[in-house]
Every structure is written in C-alpha cells, then in structure tokens.
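INFO batch 0412 | record 1 of 1 | parsing
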Amino acid sequence: MGRTLPSITMEFMQEQEAFSRFRRALRRSDQLALDDLFTAARNHLAAAAYAANALPMETFLLAMLLEEHKEVMRLRTLVEGSALRTVRLQKPIEIKDPGGSDPHEDPGDSDPPEDPENSESGRV
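INFO prediction complete | emitting tokens
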C-alpha cells in the first residue's frame, strides 16, 4: 500500500517542536514574538494544505511573512492618515511680500486713490 502523508497540522506541530530549543535560548520578549509568528502561521494552515511544497516550513514562513506584511500595511495606512490630519490641523503659514504688501489682502479692500479734482489739496 501507499504511504500516508502527515496532515499539515501535524507537520506544523513537528516544525514548531523542532524550534523549541531555539525558543528556550531566546529572551522572554523574543520568545513571545516567536510565539506570535507561529500563531500567525497556524492561522493559515488551511491555505498551507494546498501548497504542494516539499518543505512545509517554507509555507509556514510565508504565512508568517504575510501576517507581518498585513500589519505593516495597516500601520502605514494609520500613519499616513494621521499625517494628513496633522497637516489639516496646522495653521496656514502666511507669506509676506518683500514689498510689504500682504499677498492675501484683497485689492478691493483698500481705499480708492483720491481724485485730484475733488480733493482739497488739488484746489487752488
């Protein structure tokens, strides 16, 4: 008879077990990070079952990378959205003309020039 292949879940558990000594050698914070990566890979076991790879660990690493990339994209979107809100909230910078006039001033707001015929200084 033919040989039976282990399920992807069994392969995953074997790979995780193979890293147990490596995990114990890590700092506690790194152990937690590694656990998170294995959890991310476990969340994609159904898709990993369809990957016909000779090395299942490649599929698990790809699943870990996929989850990390999704987090990077989420954070990038969050930062870009935050940057846009910051730009909108900042007070606009007023640029003064070197000649002393305000470029934002409406020319119609200034007083009209005096007519020499109607001004008292213009009468003789």
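INFO post-check: The chain has a mean pLDDT of 81.
INFO record closed
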